[in-house]
Design brief:
- The complex is a heterodimer of chains A (495) and B (375).
- Chain A is globular and about 70 Å long.
- In chain A, helix 1 (16-40) runs antiparallel to helix 3 and helix 8 runs antiparallel to helix 13 (375-389).
- By secondary structure, chain A is of the alpha+beta class.
- Chain A has helices spanning 16-40, 49-52, 76-88, 141-149, 167-173, 180-183, 217-221, 255-267, 280-287, 314-327, 339-350, 352-359, 375-389, 415-434, 453-456, 459-472; strands spanning 45-46, 69-71, 93-96, 113-116, 123-127, 132-135, 153-154, 190-196, 202-206, 230-237, 239-240, 244-252, 274-279, 301-309, 332-335, 362-365, 368-369, 393-397, 403-404, 406-410.
- Chain A contains 16 helices and 20 strands.
- The model of chain A is unreliable at 1-14 (pLDDT under 50).
- Chain B is α+β, with helices and mostly antiparallel strands.
- Chain B has two domains: 3-171, Uridine Diphospho-n-acetylenolpyruvylglucosamine Reductase, domain 3 (2-Layer Sandwich), CATH 3.30.465.10; 175-339, Vanillyl-alcohol Oxidase, Chain A, domain 3, CATH 3.40.462.10.
- Chain B is built from 13 helices and 17 strands.
- Chain B has helices spanning 3-20, 71-79, 97-102, 110-113, 116-119, 148-152, 186-197, 211-216, 233-244, 256-261, 280-288, 316-326, 351-360; strands spanning 24-27, 43-46, 53-57, 62-66, 83-84, 120-127, 132-136, 160-168, 170-171, 175-182, 205-209, 224-231, 249-252, 269-274, 295-299, 304-309, 330-335.
- The longest helix of chain B has 18 residues, at 3-20.
- The model of chain B has no long low-confidence stretch (mean pLDDT 94).
- Classes of the chains: A alpha+beta (495), B alpha+beta (375).
- Chains A and B meet through helix 7, helix 8, helix 10 and helix 16 of A and strand 7, helix 6, strand 9, helix 9 and strand 14 of B.
- The complex binds flavin-adenine dinucleotide.
- Flavin-adenine dinucleotide (FAD) binds next to strand 3, helix 5 and strand 10 of chain A.
- Residues 58-59, 94-102, 105-106, 117, 137, 159-161, 165-166, 168-170, 172-173, 175-177, 225-226, 230-231, 353, 442-443, 479 of chain A line the site of flavin-adenine dinucleotide (FAD).
């Protein structure tokens, strides 16, 4: 990870020509702002540096980029008009949902306009019979599940940020969450998308009324991190609420034992709805916060395991999970006695990042995936890296998927500490790659992981990814400079 | 043969064809070469010999195999560990992994486990431009980069030759039992299907078969619902009880599924009509009784009816096509007589698909014509 802040570079004082260019650009920006205001109204356009500051970062510390402008459409038609205007002006843009992304994906460099989607937040329709919902891109994840709850349904992908993040952002990042272990990630739940391409053309991907045929352009769009266009309307599958739920908390005196229990449960073919791990430092941060969940404060690791489904048969699985935990060395395995206790156990997990954030001024939430049998080795390696670099790593992650989140609290005002954090992040990524894993399981590449892409993909494979982007956005105006390093996109035989 | 060497060989072949401008037909075991439209004048590029499991770590529930590995090879290896690749496309189990992914083929198990797009974790391919490209990876969750895995899955070999794939496996359920229920008369079908859809469990498969197909499967000649139940003892017992409340239920041998996979006669035409599941009761009566001999089955949870028309020369093909035409929904044709394809619209004719095709197969040498794309 590169911890850096980009400020407009000024070499040795502006030359007269450059100064003229800058004045010219400023006038153009003012003109663009008034054209945008003509679509969305004066109050829907932000241009002053002070106003743009809130849109200069996302959920990941260490990156700041000030956009040229920010525009906030209220209606789909306004959004369409904005994108078409930007196309006519050949202006790059970056879609932005709630800005909770953790890869600096929603940041816009100085020539690009942020298109804020949080006002397009309607749930357009819910079809309980076919278990489908159509939503606007700015609809907040949890509001959809709440609305679907009236029909005994919910939207399964549940990122820990679900009270803030938008469905459009989820689609762009192919987001996951604790319950994706059993139910699948965003990709598995989106059945159709109405999108506006950077050219201003509107097209539908996928098919909400039956099987889809032709190239899986829907699958390609999900996870494209805002580089293929903007999702205008998202049709998702809803999932019936399970009849029964059992939530278990197993506590261990070593991370290793928790990791072994995880590997054993997965290898035994049990498919919990969720299987999350938190290590000692995370537990203590949570217990010291207002989200205290009653985790044993002296434990080195806890597993939060949820099994769900039909009531009959659940308890047999609970017993098997319990046996695996005990065999791996769990001190205790506790089963939530009621809904209140379950909510409390989960709240601690979902608010763990927030709790850690209180301890240090800055928190980097990392994201990588490894084969599940490698969990014990890689967690040991991460501990060794933390010791070497003298930093504090908190692990709270989707253990059942092998999706690690080693998080590091630090103080970005301390250059030496920042440097060590950067080095540790690189070491950790390398350890995950060496274990046969990948550099991101759910947070995306954005800007933050660009440097690692050549470590896992050959130049040809990266160029092929660029070729796919070019089919959607030949001018490369949507979220420029993200996901694939620019130099990888230069040559592709097909082009 | 296998691995790197064979990938490079495929690459050399593709490059040589690009240089000559000569189209190739990618061939797995050749069991379904009449799937899709006829391919323009071609030379075969066979992957059948590239047959090996490259990596299988049971504890990770993932498997990597060369494209020519058959589904039965995979079933044998994974079965020994109590696991399976939960994909049961129609046709023989000798079909290859590469072809299954290229055609996006799935069968009744899609009810619970989805299609190849939900199962494939990573691919190695040789593009039509002759580049070796890796997409995705070997882990179960992965958002690194743009998703070429989804793009190549179901592209019918028109963008790239799949040489290797990593797939997600599942644990075999402790119990795996199949029961059959009589499908009620048309008037009661809508309510009955609605009750099925809200059962508090997901069967491994839930497939309706029409009466001629039941007979072909060796079952009583009546429209039946085949439910494949999985789980532990308690779960399966409870599932049986809930299903039993929906009608007269009897046990059926598990072999019914492999018989179903190969039930259609040689040379038959096959179409799938899909609609939102709540409309299945409107389509099923039409497609399940097109004429005395036509076979039909439906994946209940997905709202997909697959209709099979036996070959004959008395014009029943026309009647069959006309009947399908009356059904509102999405029509996908798997197999048709060569001349019938001309009337079927091409589904990769939009600007993005055309751009994708040009980017990945600029010389248009891979499986040319199979999607009805115009040059
Ligand atoms: C405390 C915390 C916990 C988190 N937990 C999880 C977790 O458990 N699992 C997980 O996967 N992620 C998690 N995240 C990351 C983040 O919440 C997700 O990536 C989320 O999907 C981002 O949504 P957003 O609306 O905030 O998107 P933004 O951050 O605004 O944007 C993210 C990307 O999506 C693009 N984009 C946004 N809307 C659209 C659209 N309509 N069309 C096209 N592109 C669009 C943007 O250009 C940008 O590239 C967490 C973040 C935080 C801060």
């Amino acid at each position: 990870m590169a911890l850096h802040t980009e400020t407009p570079s000024r070499a040795s004082g502006p030359q007269p020509e450059q100064a003229q260019d800058r004045r010219g650009a400023l006038i153009q920006t003012e003109a663009l702002a008034s054209l945008l205001a003509a679509i969305v109204g004066e109050r829907g356009v932000l241009a002053r540096p002070s106003e743009l500051s809130a849109y200069s970062s996302d959920g990941l510390p260490g990156y700041r980029l000030r956009p040229r402008l920010a525009v906030f459409p209220h209606t789909t038609q306004q959004l369409v008009d904005v994108v078409r205007l930007l196309a006519r002006k050949q202006c790059p843009f970056v879609a932005r949902g709630a800005g909770t992304g953790l890869s600096a994906g929603a940041l816009a460099r100085g020539d690009a306009v942020v298109v804020g989607l949080n006002r397009l937040n309607r749930i357009i329709s819910i079809d309980p019979l076919n278990r489908l919902a159509v939503v606007e891109p700015g609809a907040v994840n949890v509001t959809l599940s709440r609305a679907a709850g009236a029909y005994g349904l919910h939207y399964a992908p549940d990122p820990s940020s679900q009270t803030a993040c938008t469905i459009g952002g989820n689609v762009a990042e192919n987001s996951g969450g604790p319950h994706c272990l059993k139910y699948g990630v965003t990709l598995n739940h989106v059945v159709a998308l109405k999108v506006i391409l950077p050219s201003g053309e509107i097209t539908t991907l996928g098919n909400a009324d039956g099987e889809a045929e032709g190239y899986d352009l829907l699958g390609a769009f999900v996870g494209s991190e805002g580089c293929f266009g903007i999702a205008l309307e998202v049709t998702v599958r809803l999932t019936p609420n399970p009849q029964g739920v059992r939530t278990l908390l197993a506590d261990f005196t070593s991370i290793d034992a928790g990791a072994r229990a995880t590997s054993a449960i997965i290898a035994a073919g049990i498919l919990p709805a969720a299987l999350e791990m938190m290590d000692g430092p995370t537990i203590r941060a949570v217990e010291a916060s207002i989200y205290a969940a009653g985790y044993p404060a002296d434990a080195s690791a806890v597993l939060l395991i949820e099994l769900d489904g039909m009531d009959e048969g659940l308890d047999a699985d609970v017993q098997r999970v319990e046996a695996h935990c005990l065999a791996a060395g769990a001190r205790t395995v506790r089963i939530a006695a009621n809904e209140e206790e379950r909510t409390r156990l989960w709240q601690g997990r979902k608010k763990a990042f927030g709790a850690m954030g209180r301890i240090a001024p800055d928190l980097v939430v990392q994201d990588a995936v490894i084969p599940r049998t490698r969990l014990p080795d890689v967690l040991r390696e991460i501990a060794a890296i933390a010791e070497l670099r003298q930093i504090q790593v908190c692990n709270v992650f989707h253990a059942g998927d092998g999706n690690l989140h080693p998080n590091i609290g630090y103080d970005s005002r301390n250059p030496d500490e920042s440097r060590r954090v950067g080095l540790a992040m690189r070491d950790i990524m390398q350890a995950c790659i060496d274990a046969g894993g990948t550099i991101t399981g759910e947070h995306g590449v954005g800007l933050d992981k660009l440097e690692y892409m050549p470590k896992i993909f050959s130049p040809e494979s990266l160029a092929a990814q660029c070729a796919l982007r070019d089919a959607f956005d030949p001018e490369r105006r949507a979220n420029p400079g993200k996901v694939v390093p620019v130099h990888s996109c230069r040559e592709w035989v097909g082009a | 043969m296998g691995g790197r060497v064979s990938t490079v060989r495929v690459q050399e072949r593709v490059r040589e064809h690009v240089a000559r401008g000569a189209p190739v037909r990618i061939v797995g075991r050749g069991g379904w070469l009449d799937g899709g439209r006829p391919v323009d004048d071609f030379e075969p590029l066979s992957l059948a010999d590239d047959r090996a499991i490259v990596e299988y770590v049971a504890g990770d529930l993932t498997l990597t195999a060369r494209a020519g590995t058959t589904l039965s090879d995979i079933a044998a290896a994974t079965g020994a560990e109590g696991q399976w690749l939960a994909l049961d496309p129609f046709g023989s189990r000798n079909g290859t992994l590469g072809a299954t992914i290229a055609t996006g083929s799935a069968g009744p198990l899609a009810h619970a486990f989805g299609t190849p797009r939900d199962t494939v974790l990573g691919l190695e391919v040789v593009t039509g431009g002759g580049e070796i490209v890796r997409a995705g990876g070997r882990v179960v969750k992965n958002v690194a980069g743009f998703d070429l895995t989804r793009l190549f899955t179901g592209a019918w070999g028109t963008l790239a030759v799949i040489t290797e794939a990593t797939v997600r496996l599942r644990a075999r359920p402790e119990r795996d039992e199949t029961v059959a229920l009589l499908v009620p008369a048309d008037g009661a079908l809508g309510d009955w299907l609605a009750r099925l859809r809200i059962l508090p469990f997901t069967p491994l498969a839930l497939e309706m078969v029409n009466s001629p197909l039941s007979a072909t499967l060796g079952l009583e000649p009546a429209a039946l619902l085949l439910a494949r139940l999985g789980g532990n003892d308690d779960a399966v017992r409870a599932q049986r009880q809930l299903l039993g409340a929906l009608g007269d239920m009897r046990d059926v041998p598990a072999s019914v599924w492999s018989t179903l996979a190969t039930a259609e006669p040689n040379g038959a035409s096959v179409a799938r009509v899909s609609a939102p599941p709540s409309r299945l009761h409107a389509i099923w009566p039409v497609l399940s009784r097109i004429d005395a001999g036509s076979l039909a089955h439906a994946t209940v949870g997905r709202g997909v009816v697959r209709s099979i028309c036996a070959p004959s020369d008395d014009g029943n093909g026309q009647r069959w096509l006309a009947a399908i035409g009356t059904c509102e929904g999405t029509h996908i044709f798997e197999r048709l007589p060569a001349r019938a394809w001309r009337t079927i619209p091409c589904r990769v004719d939009d600007p993005i698909s055309r751009a994708v095709r040009t980017a990945f197969d600029p010389a248009r040498i891979l499986n040319r014509g199979i999607l009805g794309e115009v040059a």
